[in-house]
Amino acid sequence: MSKESLLELINKKVDELRKEIIELCQLLIQKKSINPPGNEKEAAQVIVSKLKENDIAINVQDYTGNRGNVIATLAGTTRTPKLLFNGHLDVVPVPEGEKWKVDPFSGTIKRGKIWGRGAVDMKGNVSAME
């Protein structure tokens, strides 16, 4: 497959899944996975549910408190090189007195963009990994 064909295929798939990716991103932003203290468990559960919906093998590594890792494995059909996607679900706190035009944990869409803590680092990226 040529590079151009692969890019066309990827773009087509993203277009097909656009609404689902946006909804997943909004749902992840709505989970207040602020670190410290480290409470990503609710956001991780959203990912676990999505992976289960798509019959993807998962392994959840629980740690103390509300922390943990979600490892998903999608088996390939050939012996080609492997691909790893890596991300995180925690966000930095909203400093006291910081003024947002929207709730930082709403996932509001405004002017064609998703607004909220983690939209760029890294909940939006994790949503796109779907």
How are the SSEs placed, and which strands pair?
Blueprint: H1 3-29, H2 41-53, E1 57-62, E2 68-73, E3 109-110, E4 113-114, H3 123-128
Antiparallel strand pairs: 1-2, 3-4
Note down, in words, how this protein is organized.
The mean pLDDT is 93. By secondary structure, this protein is of the alpha+beta class. It has helices at residues 3-29, 41-53, 123-128, and strands spanning 57-62, 68-73, 109-110, 113-114. The chain has a two-stranded antiparallel sheet with strand order 1-2. It starts with a helix and ends with a helix. 35% of the residues lie in helices and 12% in strands. It has a single domain (3-94, 115-128), classed as Aminopeptidase, CATH 3.40.630.
For this entry, give a set of tags.
4 strands; Aminopeptidase; alpha+beta; single chain; two-stranded antiparallel ribbon; globular; 130 residues; 3 helices
Q: Helicity, in percent?
A: 25-40%
Using the 3D structure, state the CATH architecture.
3-Layer(aba) Sandwich
Straight-line distance between termini: 23 Å
Low-confidence stretches: none
Our count of domains comes out at: 1
Mean pLDDT, as a whole number? 93
Lateral strand order in the biggest sheet: 1-2
In N-to-C order, the SSE pattern is: HHEEEEH
